[in-house]
Amino acid sequence: MALDIRNLQLRNWKVIAAIAGIVALVVIAVVLIVQNVAWPENVLAKLNGEPITREEVEARQKRHWDWYRLSMNQTEALEEIIADKLLYREAERQGHVQPTEQEAEHELETRLAAASWNVTLEAFRQDLERQGIYDEYLRLYRRQLMIESYLETVIDVDVEEDEALFFEKMREHIEYLKAQADLRYR
C-alpha cells in the first residue's frame, strides 16, 4: 500500500511538472506576441524606447541623395540616425546648446569661404531656398554644429590634423554610447 501512495505522488508530480511546462510555454508565446504588437511593422529599431521608423530611414536616404548625390542603403541610414540621436542627446546632457540661426549662418559663411568654392552665403542660401530646403538645412546644420562642439570636448584629435584618426575615435565613441543605451533592432 505504501508503494501505491509513492506511485500516486510521483504521478501527481509528473502532472504538475507537465502543467508547469505548458504554462511556461504559454507565457513565452504571449510575451513574443506582445513584443510584436508593440513593434509596428514600420519600426526598424528602438533607441531608449523611441522608435526609429522606416519612413525616417527613407527620408534620410532621400535627403542624402538629394543633397550629396550619394546613395545610402537602409542599414547605413539607420546607423547614421542612431549615431546622430546618441551624439545629440549626449551633447545636450553635457550642456552644449545649438548656436542661433545667425551664429550658424556666420559659421556656414566662414566654411564656405574656406572651402574656396567661390560661393557666398547669399548664393548658397538662394540655391537652397529655390529647392525649398534652406530652413531644413539650417535646422540640421545648427544641430550638427552642436554635435561638433560636443565632439571637440570628448575626442582629443583635431579633425584638421588627422581626419582618419578623428573619425575612428568618433566611431569608437558612438559604439560606447550605443553600449550604454537601450538599443534594440527589429
Descriptive account of the structure:
This protein is mainly α and 186 residues long. The protein has a domain at 1-38. It has seven helices and three strands; from the N terminus they run αββααααααβ. It is elongated and about 90 Å long. The model has no long low-confidence stretch (mean pLDDT 87).
Topology:
Blueprint: H1 2-38, E1 43-47, E2 50-53, H2 54-68, H3 74-93, H4 101-114, H5 121-130, H6 134-154, H7 163-180, E3 183-185
Antiparallel strand pairs: 1-2, 1-3
Helix pairs in contact: 2-3, 3-6
Strand sequence of the main sheet, in spatial order?
Answer: 2-1-3
Q: Estimate the mean pLDDT confidence.
A: 87
Number of helices: 7
Strands, count:
3
Instruction: Please provide the ordered H/E string of secondary-structure elements.
Output: HEEHHHHHHE
Unreliable stretches: none
Cα shape: elongated
Q: Helix fraction?
A: over 70%
- Major β-sheet, in short? 3 strands, antiparallel
Portion in beta strands: 5-15%
Gyration radius, rounded: 27 Å
Given helix and strand content, the structural type is mainly alpha
First-to-last CA distance:
59 Å
